[in-house]
Amino acid sequence: MSIYKRDKTWWTDFSVNGQRFRESLDTTDWREAQRLEKEKISEAQQGKLVPSNQKFARLAFSEAADRYLENRKLELSTRSLKKERQLLVNPRRFFGAKALNRVDSENLLSYRESRAKNDLKPSYINMEMGVIRRVLKRARRWHILADEIRPLRERRNFGRALFPEEKANLLRIAAFRPEWQTAMHAAILALNTTMRGCEIKGLRWGDINMLDSSLTVRRSKTEAGVRVIPLNRDAMAVIIEIYNRARTFDGAELDNFVFPACENGKIDPTRSQQSWRTAWRNLTQAVECPVCGRLQNPAKTCCNNECKADIFKVKSSLAGLRFHDLRHHAITELAESQASDQTIMAIAGHVSHKMVAHYSHVRLAAKRAALNSLAGPRQANSDTDGGKGGNVTNHVTNGTNPQNASPYVVEKYGRPVRTRTADLYRVKVAL
User: Fold this and answer.
1) How many of the other CB atoms lie within 10 Å of CB of 378?
2) pLDDT of 202-214, one tens digit each?
3) Which of 355, 360, 348 is nearest to 195 (CA)?
């Protein structure tokens, strides 16, 4: 047992039951240091103090990552914990047995550069750096490195709203192959309810009220996502079609998932489907031969042996369309239908007007129509009206009738004014 000074702060170094404890006493006073050391020894004897050789910052990165994930089990959902574990796969390989207290800014920058060489998107690199940051925060090391590590600039992708012909083409192609049926049903629900993909996957039959044609989203990305959504004709038709199919394999119980898991041809309605990524990618990349019209995967030549047309440069109009873009499109249509922000937020599950503005991509045609409504009646010119009309300035300055004019023009400070241009300017300034 000993007390020693490091810089101006007193430290203690002692052993209890063969375990060594080395702690800062956070004081510069000798008497206070003696009192705090006795408290530390008492805590160690009661098992309340972690030995210095087991400090989190001294652990190898891989071991620290395991402890971090173990501690996060109580804080995160199963899906979020799985994502955190996946994001730590490559940091484990890179840092390996390197202790957390020896990870410096150069190591972090080297890791980021190595990931960028693999053509990863900045958004994913930032997510990996984010989980590394959380591990280092747990070791109280991040504040030392924070000023030198800045997030990469991400490409801001606000999503995409479909044109009417693109929407019709999506549903037509999705119905083309039986293996795309699940993706088609999910797409129709997203287009008619604004639901996220995770909300659709987590939907159970007990969440659907067939009597009043509505469904309840009980689990969502945010607290605002918990909501009741009325089902329109298209959404209800899809729900009935899925329900009739579920009854064929006894999968329509209240606790069963609307989109059940299916592995090796075996359907398990007690588990939700994890993804329809493959079907979605195939149907959005599928192209039609311009000669014979056959729908097929992208290739150099048409798969029709009687056609064999060159389709190498043929691209699908749906290429790059994300499933989440269907939510963007649905909110866009709600905004264009002049639904109030409160109605959109109640349906889509938003918590602020900023999020509504982020998701609603009002198309150019709707913007043009809105701006055209602001324009007044077109004025006739002297070439077409025989000299009776005149330009806008003449119409305002010479043809104003005080009886019919706006009170903002006729009166200034409560008194009638002349309608000369100068007076109009002064009135506008005063207003």
Assistant:
1) 6
2) 999 999 999 999 9
3) 348
Q: Do 56 and 67 form a contact (C-beta atoms < 8 A)?
A: yes
pTM beyond 0.90, yes or no: no
Taking the CA atoms of 172, 229, 218 and 359 in sequence, report the sign of the dihedral they define: positive
Terminal Cα-to-Cα distance of the chain (whole angstroms): 82
106 Cβ contact list (under 8 Å, min separation 6): none
CATH number where 98 lies: 1.10.150.130
Q: Give 274-279's long-range contacts (Cβ < 8 A, gap of 24+).
A: 274/201, 276/182, 276/183, 276/186, 276/323, 279/179, 279/180, 279/182, 279/183
* CB atoms near residue 103 (< 10 Å): 24
Of 426, 157, 232, 190, the residue nearest 326 (C-alpha): 190
Domain containing 235 equals 164-276
Number of domains within the chain: 4
| Rg of the chain taking only CA atoms, in angstroms | 33
User: Which residues on adjacent β-strands are paired with residue 15?
Assistant: 20
Instruction: Quick: pLDDT tens for 65-111.
Output: 999 999 899 888 888 899 999 999 999 999 999 999 899 999 999 99
